[in-house]
TrEMBL record:
Biological processes annotated in GO: unsaturated fatty acid biosynthetic process
Residue ranges the record marks as coiled coil: none
Protein name stated in the entry: Fatty acid desaturase domain-containing protein
Membrane topology: Multi-pass membrane protein
InterPro entries in alphabetical order: Acyl-CoA_DS (IPR015876)
GO molecular function: oxidoreductase activity, acting on paired donors, with oxidation of a pair of donors resulting in the reduction of molecular oxygen to two molecules of water
UniProt organism field: Brassica campestris
Length: 265
């Protein structure tokens, strides 16, 4: 299987030929990918619904089957990747699957535990955690380093973000290898994989991207090392606090529905 470029900007599949570099090649040989469009045309322009990709690996042309362009996009799906079959599972993936499935099953109880106090709590927590702890802290501050905050405020916002299963390393890799096969949630490997199921395949992310080397700036700080090791305990304490304050309605609406939104957002 050929690998997409991690150094060149992604180009349109309408291009007659795309030159790519194989990041895993021992001799750094070049890959030349040729796209064969559907002959159907409209007003002189090729319309691609499905295409075949010929890739020259070490000078030998190889046909990549079942590649196609995503609707209204320049991204070519090279192959659909299954997050459940034809792969090896590790303990980290199993724990993630159990947590995510458990949260979604618990959310089914929401209609039976509705009250307006729980609903208002859900709205306020969504605004606080999505707007500040995720968007401002985990995304703009920690992932992109767009600005600096006083350390006490940075830690406060980051602590709120951990309640939503947020992560920095994968997002940095996403922007470094955007829309290539080294993107942790690459659209070149199918819609469902890029949208959600990639979170159950940490092994391929480590193999393709290199683990947590890209967050050494955070790993040097004891606070973030502590959060990384113990975030599940904080989630459990948060859930217990909500239950003590408002019973099942606060638990289901205050943590469960919010977390479902964060996971699938």
């Amino acid at each position: 299987m050929a690998y997409l470029s991690t150094t060149l900007k992604a180009v349109s599949p309408f291009s007659p030929f795309v030159k790519k570099h194989n990041p895993n090649s021992n001799n750094n040989s070049a890959l030349l990918a040729y796209h064969t469009p559907n002959p159907t045309s409209k007003q002189g322009r090729s319309v691609i619904h499905k295409e075949q990709m010929f890739v020259a690996v070490h000078g030998v042309p190889v046909l990549v089957e079942s590649s196609w362009r995503l609707p209204m996009s320049d991204v070519v799906v090279v192959r659909k990747k299954s997050a459940f079959l034809e792969r090896s599972w590790n303990s980290r993936d199993v724990r993630k699957l159990v947590r995510v499935v458990g949260v979604h099953l618990l959310s089914l109880l929401a209609p039976f535990h509705f009250n307006w106090s729980a609903f208002k709590l859900c709205l306020w927590l969504s605004l606080l955690i999505i707007g500040i702890c995720i968007t401002l802290s985990y995304h703009r501050n920690l992932s992109h380093r767009s600005f600096n905050l006083p350390k006490w405020l940075e830690y406060l916002f980051a602590y709120g973000g951990v309640l939503a299963f947020q992560w920095v390393s994968n997002h940095r890799y996403h922007h470094k290898h955007c829309d290539t096969q080294r993107d942790p949630h690459s659209p070149t490997q199918g819609f469902w994989f890029s949208h959600m199921t990639w979170i159950f395949d940490t092994g391929s992310i480590f193999n393709q991207c290199g683990g947590y080397e890209n967050v050494n700036d955070l790993a040097r700080e004891p606070f973030y090392r502590f959060l990384h090791r113990t975030f599940v305990l904080h989630l459990m304490a948060y859930a217990l606090l909500l239950y003590l304050c408002g019973g099942m309605p606060f638990l289901v609406w205050g943590i469960d529905l919010d977390m479902v939104w964060y996971i699938t957002d």
